[in-house]
């Protein structure tokens, strides 16, 4: 399997090799704890051993269930927010659906315009829905599910329940609803928090409905787990990345920007943003995660990055084989772009990528994460790598990666306004 790899590019000399090596030695014991998981977090580590929720039996089960949906559906609506939809959406947006089913996303906003648009797109098509909710108290998927249920009842009458699959926790109110109403119930792992669920039914089932090869996603994740287990502390890619992130944070960089030159990684960047934002941003600490959708964003924030205050460092996703090609031919209009005659968009994009990393790394350190291709195996590797690095980074920072107490503050005010008891 072609593996992802990492490299530090620091023309600005913020970090010396000696400093990094020293810190890696200091935090080596943390790596061992993260490899096998700590007792204090055992209720949150269902993702750490990939087989627990993405082993062969599970993969076959998700695929069989997905095959049933694919036989009859034109559209499959995933209703969920945050960790309950981002991983599946990242993969489906980057790789695309194959086969008969189009995936739509709902339950991730409170906008009347958004829900109306989704419902309009369903008219006249064969629809199945998948509500994904860990605690089934989150407002967005709750009201999205209601809106979709009304649509389904109107379209399919009493038979609508056969088209509803709910991913929820055992013993939850949602499970009761499924029993009473005849919806199919799929387990949401009790031992995984939303943002770590990419490699579980939460992420894998909708991907399978889209025609994604989820066996290859799991294989990629297992390959990455094996690599991270086998690497010693001095050669560990995860430890090096976590240490670099922490050292830069200690030197005053407050933000990490995930930059990429393939816009189809936008949803992956959103997944990454949630993973790190919710896991590290607590106790008045943490790097703020943001992303650069290049080359477009170079025309908006490029100036700040190159010349503004030193608060951001960058991690570049280097997508080595995009699998796409479009050659630019000369159409004999004197547009002054002749120097690009016969060049491929892909080649021009690479030149822009290399130029940007050269320019930016003269100002602040840049990490380059080389991703061999846009495919399932690399997504499996990326999900596992980042979840592991996130756990390790939070440990170095001294925060609990698996809770999110801060997200409740605005909800209290909102529920008060909406009259929830
Ligand atoms: O990581 C988390 O736990 C959260 O971001 C959740 O994924 C998100 O809030 C959605 O929660 P739920 O599935 O309970 O609706």
TrEMBL record:
PANTHER family xrefs: GLUCOSE-6-PHOSPHATE ISOMERASE
Pathway assignment: Carbohydrate degradation; glycolysis; D-glyceraldehyde 3-phosphate and glycerone phosphate from D-glucose: step 2/4
CDD domains: SIS_PGI_2
Cross-referenced PROSITE patterns: P_GLUCOSE_ISOMERASE_2 (PS00174), P_GLUCOSE_ISOMERASE_3 (PS51463)
EC number: 5.3.1.9
EC category: isomerase
SUPFAM superfamilies reported in the protein's UniProt record: SIS domain (SSF53697)
Annotated Pfam families: PGI
Top-level taxon: Bacteria
Catalytic activity: alpha-D-glucose 6-phosphate = beta-D-fructose 6-phosphate
Sample GO molecular function, one term: isomerase activity
Membrane-spanning residues: none
Keyword line: Gluconeogenesis, Glycolysis, Isomerase
Protein name from the UniProt record: Glucose-6-phosphate isomerase
Family per record: Belongs to the GPI family.
